[in-house]
Amino acid sequence: MFGMIRNSLFGNSEETDYKVLSSETKNGVSFQVRRYDAAKYASISSEGRTYDQVIGELVRKLLMYIGGNNEQGEAMGIAFPIIITVYPRNDGVFSRRLVVGIRIPNAYQREPPVPTDSAIKVEERPGMTVYALQFAGFAGESEYRAEASRLMRTLGETTPFQRKQYFCCSYDPPLKPYGRRNEVWFLQEDP
Questions:
Q1: Which stretch of DSSP H or E encloses residue 46?
Q2: Mind listing the pLDDT tens digit for each residue in 135-174?
Q3: Torsion over CA of 92, 145, 31 and 163, rounded to 10 degrees?
Q4: CB-neighbour burial class of residue 61 (10 A; exposed 0-12, middle 13-18, buried 19+)
Q5: Residues 101/67, Cβ–Cβ less than 8 Å
Q6: Is 160 helix (H, G, I), strand (E, B) or coil?
Q7: What sign has the CA pseudo-torsion 104, 165, 132, 37?
């Protein structure tokens, strides 16, 4: 198990490509508007447990899959970021529903290995335009919520973005002690 996780985190890695449509600063907060192409993702979901109770387990299962725990025994490496879709309640607290996804690396996009864990699904996600706010440090639910609130205030009421869900993104292995990169993404809606 450790070998599969080690391979997924420290083996081949790539960052998901995107196009920066604009870089903006409003009220002292800098963010980007980015376009991501459609791609295949490995995803796993949970309902009923809190973010902090379940996130480690879900990420570990995905790392096992991309590290070689699949029908082909193929160690794929990893494509950052790890993307966690959260569904906030009206008070901003995460609901007990979340989806964790990792983009399948480019070399495996055409024919991803078949998961052996039935909880993991390989899905085609459509292209998307997001408002992205980057921040540093270790990020858990409270940090993601704070940064999402900051981005929401910055974008204001008239900016067309999805308010019922957003994405919490991590670009680093969990044991990286410094220089960590995290982001919050809001999905742009058509005006």
A1: strand 39-47
A2: 999 998 999 999 999 999 999 989 999 999 999 999 987 7
A3: -30
A4: middle
A5: no
A6: coil
A7: positive
Distances 85 to 1, 27, 75 between C-alpha atoms, Å: 26, 26, 25
Strand partners, 121: 43
87-99 per-position pLDDT tens digit: 988 887 788 899 9
Handedness of CA 34, 36, 41, 45 (dihedral sign): positive
Tell me the whole-structure pTM to 2 decimals: 0.89
Residue 21 makes CB contacts below 8 A (sequence gap 6+) with: 32, 33, 34, 35, 129
Residues counted in the chain = 191
Closest of 120, 133, 138, 122 to residue 166, by C-alpha: 133
Tokens of 117: 């864990």
